[in-house]
Amino acid sequence: MPLGAARIAGVSAYLPERWASSRDVEAQIARAGPYRPRSGVVEKVTGIRRRCWAPPDWQASDLAVAAGEKLLADVGLAAADVDLLIFASAGQDMVEPATAHIVAAKLGARCPVFDVKNACNSMLNAIHIADALIRTGQHRRVLVCTGEIPSRAIRWQVRDRAQFVEAFPGYTLADSGAAVLLEAATPLMAGGIFHRAFSAGSRAWEVGTLPGGGTAHPRDPEYSYFRMDGRRLLEAFEGLGPGLLHEALATTGLAWTDFAAICVHQVSMPYLRKFCAVAGVPMDRVVISLPEYGNLASATLPFQLATALGQGRCGPGDRIALIGLAGGVSLGVLLATL
User: Domain 192-337 sits in which CATH superfamily?
Assistant: First the structure.
């Protein structure tokens, strides 16, 4: 089959119903003791007012399935109509098997499956892979989905301020699910993904980790919490620079003002503003999700796109941009016409 184009045929997001404010987070840390954070510090540093958490008996696959079922219903398809399913998340139900198998079983899909994992860029990388498989004729309809439950890795019992700072990223994270459907575009269809590029600064992998569960620390519960050096993470992203984004515009001959909606992964409002200023991305085109929903990890970009579509900020024929930043560290950009 000749090379073709892949288009985003649908997107959905799912948020659990339990919400916690940043003050609630600080109160829970104080109750667990012995460290008591300064009142208001989480929202002041990050700009996050609230975030949602999944029920205790839910797994990452359940969030992915909830988003996937909604998406398939929205576009009038059944799970049997999908010929590849990719689960793409920073988290997972278990080490083995791939969580994609669990998602497929719950959805009732019978297609090939696999997982993609690259921290908060997992979904963006998986969309890139689906795009390539469709363009080369190996698949025609790919469901990419994620389920994130980082709340299970939050450290509540904090020893001192140093440990609070190290564990701080966990207090920004929210549980969520999202799904994106990609299809082969026909000659009668407008739109499609027209640019994709990625870079990595992998020597900075140690600046942010969730070490437990792998071969390095298979069973020690002390390694089951998020750890991050925020200053070094910022330096790592500054080292990557905005060249990838500038090159995307130069290659396509476009400006950021040519995009109806720009989705950018968000970890704190101060850093989002700084990143956009350096990259030249106008804030009025960015879909802001962080203050009301927290850091949605790999679900951030599809959640923002679903939000923009729901608000009428973009629609068929509009250009959209997905810009991903993730621990490890990595940067990615994908441009598409809806």
Answer: Thiolase/Chalcone synthase (3.40.47.10)
